[in-house]
Amino acid sequence: MKGRLHARTFSFDENFKLYDHNVFIGCLLKSPGVICALKSDGLVVPEYKHLLVEAVPCGSTDMTICRKIKALTARENGMIKKCYDDVIQSVLVSDELRKFLLDEEHPYSEVTTAQRAEFLFRLFAHVCIGGEVCQNEENIDVYIEFTRKLYRDLLSVQKNPDTKELQIVSLIYKVELEDDTGVVFPSAVRHPNTFFYAIVDPFKRNVILLYHVFGCGEF
To answer: Single GO cellular component annotation (predicted)?
Structure first.
């Protein structure tokens, strides 16, 4: 993912309206500053007919989901269990971790559909799957710790005045663009590790764009 995973932060000066998030994302992708920044990272915003915006659940304030995955796919010391080589969704899979993340028919039910939809699960999966050519880590704890730090850096939290517990205030949106032929952004080819997220902090009025197009990264 080196050289292909990018994060950019932008500020906005109007109140963010939750019910109008499609308009916000559309304006964002037409902003000259955003277009220029994305282009410098090799990502061009093309002409499009349809803006597809998915609101991504983001309520996890601990790493419970990742610990569940560890219990299913790794040994107690964190070493990832191996499996016979297979290609799933154009990714070479040689271990139980990536098999679990990529195989939609995987029998494990300990991680629910709702947990799989969470931004934390998606972020962890993106980190573990990596790029087209990558040296996979053998210990899952490396992925969990990196995901924890990245997750913390991307999100804004505040203390609930009633419960005194931390709650996430960032709003996460997954974005795709389509024309009459199909998807055109962030890539013309859909892939589990091609993504474009807009992470909005409505209080600080900033948005982080996190994006990656699956392929060969830098060495």
So the answer is: axoneme
